[in-house]
Amino acid sequence: LNQLNEKAESTLLPDYPVLAEYYDWLQNQLGGTERFEHSLGVAEASVALAQGFGFSTSFVEKALIADFLHDAAKLMTPAKLFAAADDFQLGLDEWDRATPQTVHPFVGAALVQQTFNIRDPDILNAIRYHTTGRTGMSALEKIVYIADKTEKRTRNPEYIAEMTAALDFNQPETLNITLLKILDATLLHLLQKGFAIHPRTLAARNDVLIQLKSV
Ligand SMILES: [Fe+2]
Ligand SMILES: [Fe+2]
Known about the structure:
binds fe (ii) ion, mainly alpha
């Protein structure tokens, strides 16, 4: 893992010095675990997506910050997450409380807002909605969502291949097609496991489906 981190440091940081500010903090926050590796993978995956679809340099930079920091609160236990959410006055509802895995993005966004004074609403929303998605996702939110599920460092290669099969940088609608595939797979997985489904995930899926049908 250390070797991988060194490799990441040597490959990602020189190109994107914007990440240096967060590097040590995040490594500490995620305990130098696979989660840190995952965060680097998400950054790489979304640079590829954003550049592939021709987004601007400033967009890529925003995506990098959101990607890198998206799981900042991932290692907190549900009890700590709920306590932090109350401290940050995040106003969780009954569905948030029924699905603790959907809370780390909100606590993470509040944490990085406070720690690094990140104010860009698109960056913060990309962090907040990386687990459930939501209706009316921005391009940045979609790219961070997709990158989180399809990065190559820690995700299953077969799953990545299946989810990204339709991606075609010459056809912008394939971003939504890919998003829909991942949302569908996530919903199926939750149903099969008998887990609660956050209504926002279902809403996100219906929203992108309707967008695709109206093209
Ligand atoms: Fe996450
Ligand atoms: Fe993640």
